[in-house]
């Protein structure tokens, strides 16, 4: 009986930890495979995800990339950067307006913001396609960019709003009591405090834009972004260099997130001092 009780107690103490490790494994195993395959020499067998031989060639010789892949990557990066920039600026302004100002229709605006996030991508993509075609707008780079800005905007607004809503305004009031102007208070107190939320929203927008397929596929015309290239390449064999792009994006994202977290902790220490 004592052994049974000990076993039950051990399971109860470690159940949450075990489930947490399973969730982490479920999340990171696909990423680990992508990283592993970026070093795989599969020159003889394509579209076979079996590790053949270790090689640096996939990383060291970008000139050997499959035809069209470099162009598709560059197109996705350009669109993601522009969409992130525009969506972050507009979304941040909208978040400040919704949190800091009272106006008619504010509650309705707060509700409408969530509609693009809740709508299926196929519905949003087909709606934009119908709009562009009915207006005679040629499909291509600009239609992709407009679509990406639209669906990134909601995520930016919600993320920055969450940061602003949790912001304590005591520091701003203290700055005003010390005769700081509204402009000085905003740039020296408010903006640094909100900046981690803005950076997080920009990262989310970039990620969403870079890997979007459904909306992009419907509104791209003759343009081919990186996700569309991977989908097309899958019909005849995915080059291992695709995993190089995935690994590089993952490493860059982790580095930016860590940098943002370090900056946030430094701010908290400075405020607590």
Automatic annotation (TrEMBL):
One of its GO terms (cellular component) is plasma membrane. It comes from the Bacteria. SUPFAM superfamilies: MetI-like. Keywords: Cell membrane, Membrane, Transmembrane, Transmembrane helix, Transport. Residues 73-263 form the ABC transmembrane type-1 domain. CDD domains: TM_PBP2. The chain crosses the membrane at residues 15-39, 75-99, 111-133, 139-164, 185-210, 242-259. It is found in: Cell membrane. Its main location: membrane. The keyword Signal does not apply. Pfam families: BPD_transp_1. GO terms for biological process: transmembrane transport. PROSITE patterns: ABC_TM1. It is a multi-pass membrane protein. Belongs to the binding-protein-dependent transport system permease family. CysTW subfamily. This is ABC transporter permease.
